[in-house]
Input
Amino acid sequence: MRAGGRRIRGGLMPHRLIHGIAVSPGIAAGPALVVRWEVPEVPEQAIAPEAVDREIARLRDALAFAKERIQAVRRQAAERAGEEEARIFDAQLMILDDQDLIGGVERLIRDNHFSAERAFALKIVEWRGLWSTHGSPLLRERLADLTDVEIRVLTRLLGVDEPDVLADHDGPVILVARDLTPSLTVQLDREAVLAIACEQGTRTSHSAILAHAIGIPAVVGLPGVLSRVKTGESVILDGWTGTLMVEPTPEDAARARARDEQQRVFARELAAEADRDAVTGDGRRLTVRANLDLPEELSVAVNGRAEGIGLMRTEFLVVGRGRMPGEDEQYSLYRRVGESFPTSEVVIRTFDLGGDKFPGFRAAAENNPFLGWRAIRVCLDHPEVFRPQVRAILRAAAKARLKLMIPLVTRIEELEATRRIVEEEAAALAKAGIEAAASVPVGVMIETPAAVLIADQLSRRADFVSVGTNDLVQYTLAVDRGNARLASRFTSLHPAILRSLDIVRRAAAASRIEVSVCGEMASDPVALYVLLALGYRTFSVAARSLALIRWVARRLRAEDAEQAAPRLLVARTADEVAEQARAAVRQLVDPRLLEPA
Output
């Protein structure tokens, strides 16, 4: 019997297959090199009181050195990956300028007589603890940037060389690591590194963006990969499906090569049709917009022919900074994004962060920040944070087609209070003679069971609604989407999710307002078929998925999908839903979307 395994003592040992998240396409085979890109160890060293000024001088020298090194890496990133991608390193430069960080380290030196390296390391530990438990995915994704900064500063203070992961290894390898920092990723030699496999990371982490930009296949979120793979073991990394195969047979390798060629042919087919509109086989026009996590993704969305921005996150304006972004700074950014889509709409989501990350005030630590004081709750409690953002959106809306969307809505009062603030700020701007829109459409994200159950009331009061499927799945199924042990339970095809989507779509239709899906659910062809069946016609996804959605849509008939809706809605399990949808995609679209070669 078979297959995909290697023979031992007359039997077969199956290869090991680890599933993760595909972030950069391509298939590579070669020896693994397990690397540990780690922060140097810091001795628990105290200083004499008279040495305080000297230690602070050492700290400032190290910060200046780190800034110079990161600026050099930024220039290298611009040459290798592009200017937009190089802006990733601006976040690291902002960390080095953060007065909360610098002031905190200096206080530790003055008050506790810690050495500069110990004080800096302790402060970074504090920041890492806050970021890693924060409810905002964006903040957790920036931990690698924090590590980059930490390594630069500590190596200078300790007088040691920066780690060189390829120093003692010859020949091309597949890097296996816990996580790679952005600066290491952008410096990797494409000839020496065939692919990257990481235990941690997300689709929108900076390392993932850079790996894709410089053309290195990569998979992140591989559970336990550091303990399951040894240096020198043969591996195959599949950046199309997000898998890492350990100790493959020659037959496995041959299949991987065939699959790589098949996927490259498929990619060329997608590119050849990339300019065609998203119109289903029976003539239904879909609207396909892009999600925007960072400004550097804007050019990708424009070049990918996005029909506007369906979800522009604004948290990056706040994360890692010692002060809130000013109204003018926000206005410039919102206007730039809006003017990039002169004939389409841009939906700006107001700040979705916890209270501990808004500079200027401190919130008590929370046991469960995902359900804590965050998003619209913080904004309404602190109008000095919210009103400048509303004013910036109103001013930019005078030059572009902008909408305002509020996250984590669970109460009608939150929508009504936001509307009052928009009206008051619009009136104030007009009275002051400042150019601004007289109003702006206000919508809500549907991402909690509470919002689903009051979708009819929200729809009567909102100008549009958008379903954030990632959080809706998390909160409805009570499954942490970051918990690898529960990954199989995190499914957007659960009957409860389908019924929620049906409720929201019907509520919006009854109020004659736009309803869209702005989660990554729509980028999965099987889930896209389900959404078409439920009547959804407007989607917003990562820019790299735009062409795929248009390609799939052109091969489906919306009417056929709608006829399947009653069967999908009475399915007992997610597997039953998936089975029906996969059969349709296999028959009507292309089996290559489902089955590896």
